[in-house]
Amino acid sequence: MKKRTAGSADYRKYVALALAGGADEAKLISASTVVTAEWVRLKCQFGCSGYNKRLCCPPCTPTPAQTRKMLSEYRHALIYSYTCTPRGYKAKRLRMQKLIVAIERQAFLDGHYKALALMAGPCRLCADCNRNGNCRHPESARPSMEGSGIDVYATARGSGIPLEVVTRADATAKFINLLLIE
Hints:
- It is a single chain.
- This protein is an alpha+beta fold.
- The protein has one domain (9-181).
- Helix content is 31%, strand content 15%.
- The chain contains five helices and four strands, in the order αβααβαβαβ.
- The chain has a four-stranded antiparallel beta sheet, covered by helices on one side.
- The radius of gyration is 15 Å and the shape is globular.
């Protein structure tokens, strides 16, 4: 098998899939540029209504230390952004969650057996997560980037994707999804 690099055609395919699926921007980055920090997980614990209520959120997700160790096992990543208006928020977030998993599946089928998707924020597949049992959708549910200790703002900005704090409930919000590829 030929050696793959971040600029090779087979990796650019995933950028094209993200853009065709509705991403506003998509880039290939080095996995070493994904930023983790201990404080990020604390923001989930103290500030997010999903904490300890969903299987894709803390304390069920990898710790920042586990995430750092896992990231060291990858060389490449696909990062993409998408925006949601308050009116179309739920439908678009669900569609984008399904998109990152579909791209992960395609990468796996292409021979990238370690492909792993991480998504923006809490999982939205079930209105009521089966928190005390098994996930109802393990084929589609993935851990949140934030819940795994990834500093999404630093990672996005470092990749050239501008990301700012949303300060009004009626504002359009930008979200980030990530696919680790080896």
